[in-house]
Amino acid sequence: MGKIVKIIVIWCMTAAIVSAQKAETIVENATKAYAQSNGISAQIAVNSRMEKQGVAESFEGTVEMKEDRFVLKTPDMLAWYDGKTLWTYMLRTEEVNITDPSGDDLVLTNPMILLRTYRKGFNVSYAGESTSGNGRTADDILLTAKGKNEIETIELQIERATSLPSRMAVTFKNGLRTDIRITQMKTGLNQPDETFTFRPSDYPDAIEIDLR
Q1: What digits encode the pLDDT tens for the residues 71-96?
Q2: Which residues pair with 66 in a beta bridge?
């Protein structure tokens, strides 16, 4: 019986190593695919909920990404990030908060940053095969936070045909779960740098609040 237990333990450890290696290869391929995409535009659908409180919120938006930069548009907010500075414009108050955020603060806004930095704070494993929203075969990757982290897990769905993410679900330790689905995507846009910078002339009534 002791030998059988040892064999089972060895098998489980080997399976876990293979799972991690496969998952890391998929994530690395996704990182390369994004680097070679030369600018992405995507339509997204976001759903956030707190199960215990029974609170949920859903909205749709668009995001453009190129390298570390992005511009995000939702019904309530516009955000521009040029690789260093983040401008967050709240439509209701017409206030623009200006910050220099850390990589951790940007993960939920630009999932592509997560692809390059996941080794710093997460253990990675392969969770299986699935079908993305547009009917393509995809691989599911599970990132489990290690150490002190407000995030508990991140689930990534990466399409095999493009090696790009089609869904990301983040579960926080406080019970909040945010699901982001990419409903449409275009690549090769090669957006100019000013796309990712807030231009005051476009919003003459905006009140800038510098929090840097």
Answers
A1: 889 999 998 989 889 899 999 999 99
A2: 69
Q: Quick one: how far is CA 127 from the chain centroid?
A: 17
Length of the chain: 212
Q: Report d(CA 130, CA 18) in Å as an integer.
A: 19
Q: How many CB atoms lie within 10 A of CB 150?
A: 11
Contacts of 156 (CB under 8 A, 6+ apart): 27, 30, 111, 140, 141, 142, 143, 165, 167, 168
> CB under 8 Å to 43, separation ≥6 — which residues?
60, 61, 62, 182, 183, 184, 185
Mean pLDDT of 104-111: 60
CA–CA dist 139, 163 (Å, integer)? 9
Question: Coil, strand, or helix at residue 163?
Answer: coil
Place of tokens 């045909």: 161
pLDDT per residue over 181-193, tens digit each?
A: 988 899 999 999 9
Query: Do residues 38 and 189 make contact, with C-beta atoms less than 8 angstroms apart?
Result: yes
Helix (H) or strand (E) segment spanning residue 105: helix 103-106
Average pLDDT, the chain: 83
**Residues linked to residue 59 through DSSP beta bridges, in sequence order:** 46
Q: Cα–Cα distance between 149 and 151 in angstroms, integer?
A: 5
In angstroms, the CA 80 to CA 62 distance is 12
